[in-house]
Amino acid sequence: MSEPAIEKLTAIDLKTAREEKTFLERIVSEWAILRSGTKLILTLYILICLSLSIFHLYTSYFGLLEAWAQRSVHLLIVLLVVFFTPRKKITEKGVAFRLSIFGDVLPGLVTFVVALYMYIQYMEISVERAGDPNITDTIACWLLVILILEACRRRVGNAVAILGMISWSYTVWGHFIPGYLGHPRFSIGLITDFFLNNTTGILGIPIAVSALYIILFIILAAFLYYANSSEFFLKLAYALTGNWKGGPAKAAVLASALFGSIHGSGPGNVMATGVFTIPLMKRLGYPSHFAGAVEAAASTGGILLPPVMGATAFLIAEFTGTPYIKICLYGALPAICYYIVVFIQVHIEALKQDLPTMDKKNLPKILEVMKEGYLLVPIILILVLLLMGYSVLRAASVSILAIILLSFVRASTRMGIKQFFAALEMGATNAVMVAVTCATASIIVGSVSMTGFGTKLANLILYASMGKLFLALFFTMFVAIICGMGMPATPVYVILIATAAPALLQLGVPILVSHLFIFYFGTMAALTPPVALSCYAAASIANADVTRLSLTAVKLSLAGFLIPYMFVYNHGLLLMTGPMGALYALCTAIPGFIAMGIGISGWCYGHLNIWRRAFLIFGAILLIWSGIMTDLTGLLMIAIALLTQFYFFKKTKKMGDSSFPEDRFF
User: Domain limits of the chain?
Assistant: First the structure.
């Protein structure tokens, strides 16, 4: 089997892998051939995007506006970006971009009118009429809700928009519902005051987090992209793991972890790194469905990995009142354990398939790759500044400035004027989906809070679980996975922390642990069939059956479905039990997850029979669980399984049996 030319492949500028340029890149390169109408539409869109990014960069460096003003400006510019996004149209003369009068321009103009009203009446709405809104405030509130739901439908999908519409309808008309699920009648003025005049509804915590933190990290990711960080992460991954057994698959795991930790989107991560890693895995000999599953599992796991954690880490920090740096600390070990299991299974699959290692001469040299190691500085700088006590806002803004300056170190990473403004446009464009999701989530959370529906649903969960923690956790997991099949992790998290988390709190689960439990399953839903968003993206690249790929991805990421239960019962896995407790958790969890990876794959010196696999998996669970006796029992079960397997391997080799390959486990 010929070796793939990794160095040549990873040297390709990843910008060329995108099907579409940013509109700014397109208008600069094709200005001479674009029609005047198209130029006007694209220019308008670019200016709105640039205004969004520049507004947030300016306020992050020179001071934020008052909370109501900062959040409303953020939301209204985001809505303008959504409605003035050009629609691509193929004509006989080529590609053209249009705006629909009624579908785009009209809602865009309504958004502009609402924005103008909120700007002119800022003090009156948020201060003087707080508690006593007038009819114009009510009209503005209803228009804003309709615009948010329509923007959500366009950018996120029907599921989240419908849920937002149901929540709003329940708030307004829920008093007609008889019995336990009904609520007292609220006046239109009270609803307007709650949702518009104060920061409890539309401008609540979710949109606040989007306006303060998330958008800056998305802008940072855009600047890292234009500094060729994606190419750097890939070359670094191949330099470190390329000549191991199954090198491309391990490089895919590592590259997806690095890129996904700042990108924050499972399907987006798949499309960014999978276009290179999946074909290489297939060329080395991995089956198509397995290659796609590795990328899907690794990319989705990137959402669990600090520092960004899919932007949900900022919401967790706000809702729980926990410093962001502690969220990163608590989430580190579970995410590492997740990748250990994926890595082990990739390694074992390479042994089972007897795949060749890759020639070092075709791989990037680590010293050559690390000449661009300064691209890691902004990520490290974030953690350093947070540990020094600086705010998340300051850490993000300084890191953005750092990557802009550092990009000039080498020609391969240098950003010119065009790349600078293209990064601003990309940052705004990528932030829109998260922002409208957070805006819809604010409506949902506001509805749950105002109507008391969260308490009612929590009581139902307690009743259905009969007060048993494990059943309550299972019901919460089930709802999270079902909701997450059609939604990103962020709205799933927001919905469940308002409805299911109170039940877990009443059963004694600490608030931060319950929020992380919900976050994990909202994330893992991206891999579960029938609607597995990350797997659909991977299948399109791998040319594989989606269902088979999804089932393989679930197998690879099985640790992600078990880890949340484990840290609920063993807080040491979250490093919350002090230095000695953390050390003990490390010494038991990591060997446990290695054993779990072997058990799930069913291979160690050859095929494992069913009882050895059971011993490894259940032994791993006991080892990761809290308690001396469970740890000793787990160690014993794992030792029995591995020692008997090794004995059987030696015995069959002496008898000349060729059922085991020559390869050892490592």
Answer: 6-157, 210-576, 577-666
Count of beta carbons in the 10 Å neighbourhood of residue 111: 26
Closest CA to 441 of 396, 483, 502: 483
Taking the C-alpha atoms of residue 496 and residue 360, their distance in angstroms, rounded to an integer, is 48
Say how far apart CA 618 and CA 608 lie, in whole Å. Answer: 15
Closest CA to 253 of 323, 390, 346: 346
Contact criterion met (CB below 8 Å) for 527 and 563: no
Q: Give the number of residues written for the chain.
A: 666
3-state helix, strand, coil split of the chain in percent (to 5) is 75, 0, 20
Backbone angles phi, psi at 530, to 5 degrees: -85, -20
Least confident of 32-46, 415-429, 550-564: 32-46
E strand or H helix at 98, and its extent? strand 94-98
Q: Decide if 487 contacts 160 (C-beta within 8 A).
A: yes
Q: Which pLDDT does position 143 carry in this prediction?
A: 96
Cα(664)–Cα(605) distance, rounded to whole angstroms? 6
Whether the model clears a pTM of 0.70, i.e. scores above it, the answer is yes
Compute CA distances 168 → 62, 165, 194, 438, 450, whole Å. Answer: 36, 5, 12, 15, 11
- Are 274 and 295 in contact by the 8 Å Cβ rule? The answer is yes
- Please give the Cα distance from 541 to 508 (Å, whole number): 45
